[in-house]
Design goal:
single chain, about 400 residues, Aminopeptidase, 9 helices, 13 strands
């Protein structure tokens, strides 16, 4: 028989290892949350090319091996090497963009029930809410602001305000912070994280962090509805547990944009980083043109984008079915740590169970001990011994 002291020590060791794993998980999550690459300040432009050297896209965000990109035509690339500011990407395949999540059965049943009731008895419709903020609020446009950066708040604040105005015109409540989170440094996302935490208290349906890129203006110019307009690029952070949901959200937005305003969305960049997107399954960072584009055109583009957001989240005026509520992936910075704690608890319970099984000599003996324990607990609760089948309850057990 295995030594009981050895098993007890094994349980304690598992608990200690679990604690170390939890500490590492919290530390790594914090590092991923606040890891950022200061885009637009160094003046460097990173270029993603295919195997034949053809340019896929340019960005002021640093490109890393493993980053991914979905271009305007839905070609899906993955970066396999980076040499200086040039990243070579492999074409994986042409993809079909994700559809909005279908309405859940309980939500559909509730909606049908509400529609069957008299108007006076119907519940008030769930409010539509979107949160908008600017992690890099100093970003500006040379054509319109006269500078590429303005502290404390630049032209990107005005672009976010235009998006807010357009969404509110569609009956959407906008949770908006005008905090610029300056200076434009690696700590900006840590500061904006507190803004996101406040916004999440109102349970918004989506989070939109509004930025602009820092590349030559032609990179973000495309004909949309017969006129040259400023494009919008969607950015999804790869280092967060909501990455799959965030990507699905971004793909859904691009799909809607491709249907309504082909060319408006430039692409989806799955970049190394977090961008506070671990806090919600429907979070996206948008690059509205570049510092070299006209601010007025950028404001025009977010007006179009507001229609895309509305159609994706709430359906069209023609009665298209709205997307279901956001996935129930845990929100907030503690999501990863909470799952780590759950695994530790489960591991400890399993270790204790193994210890009890070994120490009692077998499964039947363990069941007997548990039954005896339950009987004693019932006795304490009701003031007398619990009756077993075949007992008259007249004497103490074992006497």
């Amino acid at each position: 028989m295995i030594n009981r002291l050895f098993v007890l020590r094994l349980c304690l060791a598992l608990l200690l290892v679990g604690g170390l794993i939890l500490t590492a998980a919290v530390k790594n999550n914090a590092e991923a949350v606040f890891e950022d690459f200061v885009d637009g300040l160094s003046g460097e432009v990173y270029t993603m090319v295919d195997a034949d050297g053809r340019v896929i896209m340019r960005t002021a965000r640093r490109i890393f091996e493993g980053d991914e990109y979905i271009d305007r035509n839905n070609n899906y690339y993955r970066v396999r090497s980076v040499n200086g500011t040039t990243a070579e990407a492999e074409l994986i395949k042409k993809i079909t963009l994700a559809e909005p999540q279908p309405e859940s059965l309980p939500a559909r049943l509730e909606r049908l029930l509400q529609q069957s009731l008299p108007v006076q008895q119907r519940k008030e419709a769930k409010s539509k809410k979107v949160a908008i903020y600017n992690s890099h609020g100093a970003e500006s446009y040379l054509k319109g602001d006269g500078t590429e950066s303005k502290d404390p708040g630049g032209g990107i604040i005005d672009v976010a305000a235009e998006l807010q105005k357009a969404l509110e015109a569609k009956g959407i409540k906008v949770i908006r912070s005008r905090e610029p989170h300056t200076p434009h440094d690696a700590g900006a996302y840590q500061r904006s994280r507190r803004t996101v935490e406040e916004a999440l208290k109102e349970n918004p349906d989506a989070l939109i962090d509004v930025h602009r890129d820092a590349v030559p203006e032609e990179e973000y110019l495309e004909e949309v509805k017969g006129k040259e307009r400023v494009q919008i690029q969607l950015v999804v952070g790869r280092q967060n547990q909501n990455m799959a949901n965030n990507r699905q959200f971004a793909e859904g937005l691009k799909k809607k944009a491709d249907e309504k305003y082909p060319g408006l969305v430039k692409g989806i960049f799955m970049a190394r980083g977090n961008y506070n997107q671990d806090m919600s399954p429907r979070a996206v960072l948008i690059e509205v043109g570049s510092h070299t584009n006209e601010k007025g055109q950028a404001e025009e583009s977010v007006n179009f984008f507001s229609e895309v957001v509305n159609d994706y989240l709430y359906g069209t005026a023609e009665g298209e079915q709205a997307a279901s509520p956001a996935p129930t992936t845990s929100r907030g910075p503690g999501g990863t740590a909470l799952r780590a704690v759950m695994w530790i608890v489960l591991g400890l319970v399993a270790a204790v169970g193994i210890y009890l099984l070994i120490s009692t000599g077998g499964w039947e003996q363990l069941k007997g001990r548990v039954k005896s324990f339950r009987r004693r607990e019932l006795s304490d609760l009701f003031g007398g011994r619990g009756k077993e089948d075949g007992e008259d309850g007249g004497g103490d057990e074992g006497s």
